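Researcher: We plan to redesign the surface later, but first we want a full-length starting point. Tokens attached.
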């Protein structure tokens, strides 16, 4: 099982995250949030091949901008050639989820997407280099007053938990944490999750949002702001015990949050985040 984010594209410009896509043995699970009202109450989902051919997978019912649906691909011949999933919205806007790089002769659109992805990767690498240099060399005598604000200018922001800000980082970017947490860079649990799901999140909870969150640490000293490292994973009792062995205190369900549900009961097999309180 693999997990991917769905980008909201306005033409060639990525504006925000609009949901997630989970690849399973017999199909995909698509979760959408913040779908524009102009799209109505249903969104079509298409698989796209290396040369631009498309396969219709089905529809996701939308209510108040949210929707989730499991779509099967077992009856679709040639789906193994799929490189991305597209969800048309309105005008030039669409949801885009890149599953893998093209290996054959691509269409002009696919080439353009590849070039854009490469440019984004180069930009992200430059940002990562900057963050590492900032943490390890040529430090100014006095750090900026708001380090989190600096991090938001450096790393992509995603919107997963309504009560928290969150940044998308890589294991090597954990150098932005205080020294005592640098060992997480080589933490086996962190690395295993990252190479399975290709995501690692740094959360900031503040004020009332912290008080309302189930993630607040039992030994909290009453600080106004707390930070958590979120490691993507599927909830199972065995996995939970392994996470605890590596220092992760709890689990928060991600699928219910994507649907905007107030009731977020954890169940076996649900997708979410193993959480560890950290400092920056």
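Model: Full-length starting sequence:
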């Amino acid at each position: 099982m693999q997990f991917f984010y769905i980008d909201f594209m306005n033409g060639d410009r990525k504006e925000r995250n609009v949901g997630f896509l989970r690849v399973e043995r017999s199909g995909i699970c698509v979760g959408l949030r913040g779908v524009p009202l102009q799209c109505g109450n249903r969104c079509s989902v298409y698989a796209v091949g290396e040369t631009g051919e498309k396969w219709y997978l089905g529809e996701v019912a939308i209510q108040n901008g949210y929707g989730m649906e499991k779509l099967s691909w077992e009856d679709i011949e040639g789906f193994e050639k799929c490189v991305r999933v597209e969800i048309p919205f309105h005008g030039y806007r669409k949801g885009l989820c890149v599953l893998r790089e093209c290996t054959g002769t691509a269409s002009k659109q696919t080439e353009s997407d590849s070039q854009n992805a490469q440019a984004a990767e180069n930009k992200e690498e430059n940002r990562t280099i900057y963050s590492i240099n900032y943490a390890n060399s040529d430090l100014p005598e006095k750090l900026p007053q708001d380090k989190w604000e600096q991090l938001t200018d450096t790393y992509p922001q995603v919107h997963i938990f309504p009560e928290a800000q969150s940044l998308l980082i890589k294991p090597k970017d954990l150098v932005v944490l205080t020294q005592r947490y640098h060992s997480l860079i080589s933490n086996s649990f962190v690395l295993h999750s990252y190479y399975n799901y290709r995501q690692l999140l740094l959360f900031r909870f503040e004020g009332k949002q912290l008080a309302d969150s189930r993630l607040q640490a039992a030994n909290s000293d009453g600080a106004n702001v707390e930070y958590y490292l979120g490691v993507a994973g599927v909830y199972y009792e065995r996995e939970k015990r392994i996470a605890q062995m590596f220092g992760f205190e709890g689990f928060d369900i991600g699928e219910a949050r994507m649907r905007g549900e107030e009731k977020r009961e954890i169940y076996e097999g649900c997708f979410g985040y193993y959480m560890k309180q950290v400092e920056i």
